[in-house]
Design goal:
CATH architecture of the largest domain: 3-Layer(aba) Sandwich
InterPro entries: D-2-hydroxyacid_DH, D-isomer_2_OHA_DH_cat_dom, D-isomer_DH_CS1, NAD(P)-bd_dom_sf
Enzyme class: oxidoreductase
EC number: 1.1.1.95
CATH superfamily of the largest domain: NAD(P)-binding Rossmann-like Domain
Protein name: D-3-phosphoglycerate dehydrogenase
Keywords: Amino-acid biosynthesis, NAD, Oxidoreductase
Number of helices: 9
Distance between the termini: 44 Å
Length: about 210
């Protein structure tokens, strides 16, 4: 029977599904000294935020697949896995709505000074309301960098608030963006110069580091 190593907890139902076809090794129940040694003996590794290095991949003779319980695979050495013929898989739509909603929450929090005002109200300082002018989002410009699944969900959310959207993504077509009301620009500087709010939704890799 194949062995699947879980670096972190996942939902109990997910564990049951895996246990129906494989021996599941729960990494969080192991000591630090044997954690990665046991992982290297398995046929598959499922991670959340743990890092899968090229060194681990090199020293895992039975490893056939690395799964990401989420979207981004920046914590997996994909190049090393590919060189060894190890498949890397993820769940590309697992939390796209949650991430977009979280981004919207952060935008609203900043625009309305929620954290600061909440703190002051808890201290009984109600005079602060005369010292701050919050940003009204209607009519403002939002710059979205990365117009993939998450970016496009956020576009719809911000448009519903009356915001104008400009976007940057070298992998999408201008005509497709025009149909949904996004003004696509070809220069990142235009995003930062023209936007009242900027939200970034791109994978972390060598081409996006800077």
């Amino acid at each position: 029977m194949s062995k699947v190593f879980l670096t972190e907890r996942i939902h109990d139902e997910g564990i049951k599904i895996l246990e129906s076809t494989a021996k599941v090794v729960k990494g969080w129940e192991l000591g630090e000294e044997i954690f990665w040694k046991e992982a290297a003996r398995c046929d598959a590794i499922l991670i959340r935020s743990a890092k899968i290095s090229g060194e681990l991949i090199k020293n895992a003779p039975n490893l056939k697949v690395v799964g990401k319980h989420g979207i981004g695979v920046d914590n997996i050495d994909v190049k090393a896995a590919t060189e060894r013929g190890i498949v890397v898989v993820n769940a590309p739509e697992s939390n796209i709505n949650a991430v977009a909603e979280h981004a919207l929450t952060l935008i609203m929090t900043l625009a309305k000074n929620i954290v600061l005002l909440d703190h002051k109200v808890r201290l009984g300082d109600f005079d602060l309301r005369t010292k701050f002018t919050n940003m009204e989002l209607k009519g403002k410009i939002a710059g979205i960098i990365g117009l993939g699944k998450i970016g496009l969900i956020l576009v719809k959310q911000l448009q519903s608030l009356g915001m104008k959207i400009i976007g940057y993504d070298p992998y999408v077509q201008t005509s497709a963006m025009e149909k949904i009301g996004v003004d696509l620009v070809d220069d990142l500087d235009k995003i930062f110069m023209s936007s009242d709010i900027v939200s970034i939704h791109v994978p972390l890799n060598e081409s996006t580091k800077g």
